[in-house]
Write a structure and sequence with these properties.
Blueprint: H1 4-24, H2 32-44, H3 49-57, H4 70-86, H5 92-105, H6 111-121, H7 127-141
Helix pairs in contact: 1-2, 1-4, 2-4, 4-5, 4-7
Length: about 140
């Protein structure tokens, strides 16, 4: 039996992946590199392959889930930007999805363009650079 907090954390992890999967499907199909990124993110959260596969195969309509704090929202956006660049093609549908996410997360206009600029030059942002970016985003877009 899992406790309440374990259940909540599992729900958080699955919602994180559901947001990534919704983005991957934004252009009509999940590309192999996008699927690999989804599995990598799922494994990072300790999910099993069968759990990830179940989320990928789900036909339920996705509703964007808002993480509870700025740090978790920014970490979600980090993975979302990795997903945008995963297949090497930045699609208009993906950008529109990013705008929807940013609005739903409660950030100000301009954040998507700021994120795209950050990731366009270097998708391999270090953890320290990302921590600095989180602080900058808090100042600029909250």
């Amino acid at each position: 039996m899992i406790g309440f907090f374990e259940h909540q954390y599992l729900k958080f992890k699955k919602n994180h992946l559901k947001n990534l999967i919704a983005l991957a499907k934004a252009d009509g199909e999940i590309h192999e590199l996008e699927e690999q990124l989804i599995y990598k993110a799922g494994h990072k959260y300790g999910l099993k392959d069968r759990q990830i596969e179940s989320l990928l195969k789900s036909e339920e309509t996705h509703v964007i889930t808002v993480p509870e704090n700025h740090n978790n929202r920014m970490n979600q956006l980090y993975d979302i930007m990795l997903m945008v660049y995963a297949d090497g093609v930045v699609d208009d549908n993906e950008i529109e999805f990013c705008h929807d996410i940013v609005r739903t997360f409660g950030y100000k206009e301009g954040m998507v363009e700021w994120l795209i600029e950050k990731f366009a030059s270097d998708v391999t942002i270090t953890p320290q650079e990302w921590d600095e970016a989180k602080m900058e985003a808090q100042r600029k877009f909250m």
